């Protein structure tokens, strides 16, 4: 390993900085491609999850979720906030044209991944996963060490605001990964083997993305340096942000599956895993808009901080309004069709899908706020709000799991999500000088959509019509009730929001998108 350089300056391989217009253009391009990737991934994900549920059964389905949760948390713990700090410090340096600073950060971060993160995750896999030694060697060699050796690749693309390229690459990798998972499920019918195939093939993403990184940054990724001499304030931001990320993962990464598994309630773990996964799939189109925002907002803070308040309100209105539309028109029908699609073993997950889906909508609406709080390097603030949410979550799990079982886990999850996103809304509104009452009005469509969903679903469960007909009618009724609620209460998108959202889709789709957005635009002030 080398030692890397730290001097800012243009240099012969300097990567040109981005102005406000270029930041916005790349963010919109990233949104378009990320949305396309999300549509493809959601379709594939639904299909593969149906197959996994029917082939593995409820207990082994929960086992796959358990392995994913435990090893994801191990990786987050080992990272200590490195990835977030690399993106934040790298994006700001790149926006100001300091190519050498970015190269130094990338090179040193690669050294940390190889010396710290890869060994910790490898040890966790050896302790938790049970598979044939050859499969274990493949998982550790490719899924962990190869990925660690090139993990600076997606970070470099994010720093350069090449989020469109990240999405294109992710589409290819997702397709290959899902094919591998299907083959593993059909040939082995073993949860651990399925998980190994997902991890091993998923590591191809960092390899395929490497050619799209600018030459100066690509050299830094391929030449790791000792993890010392980071920019001033790097670890002061990274460590609190890393601890906050660990706590945040305890809220958003199906940790309840681990508690249900440890308590011996493996069937409930499978039901929770399926319901949680479906909720994530339903809201991934809205969630996908957040990724391109992170480098864009970080760069915006560096070049035009005065516009942050307007950006925050517009982002919150868009995420809340679109997420609530999915709640009103999507969750009820999905719950009705759960048993015929996934099998009788998973029938008990239907009401859990509705509950966790509403929680996922709240989390999706709050996700853009994470981009704002990360852009101001407020690692300590993230740590405090995540700690509060985790305390609430863990206290409720310990208190309710022995009494309520599956529903104890659901209540704990929803409470943690509500606390985390409520605190985020308060802190970021204050920082952006936005009145809390205005911010609450911007996210109020969530309440309208949730009420519409629950009312329609309560009626649909007792409807005499056929299941498919009932599901279609409940989707239409939920969406109509939601739109009427927005109109009566003067909530939803503001007039200028539509143009910004239209710009994120292709020209052919804009007339249709314009009509849909017009139905949702009733916000005043």
UniProtKB/TrEMBL annotation:
InterPro entries, per database record: Poly_Biosynth_Transport, Polysacc_synth
Bilayer disposition of the protein: Multi-pass membrane protein
Pfam families reported for this sequence: Polysacc_synt
Keywords on record: Cell membrane, Membrane, Transmembrane, Transmembrane helix
Localisation: Cell membrane
A Gene Ontology term for the protein's cellular component: plasma membrane
Top-level lineage group: Bacteria
Record field: transmembrane: 33-52, 64-90, 111-129, 135-159, 171-188, 194-213, 234-252, 318-342, 348-373, 385-404, 439-460, 466-484
Record protein name field: Polysaccharide biosynthesis protein
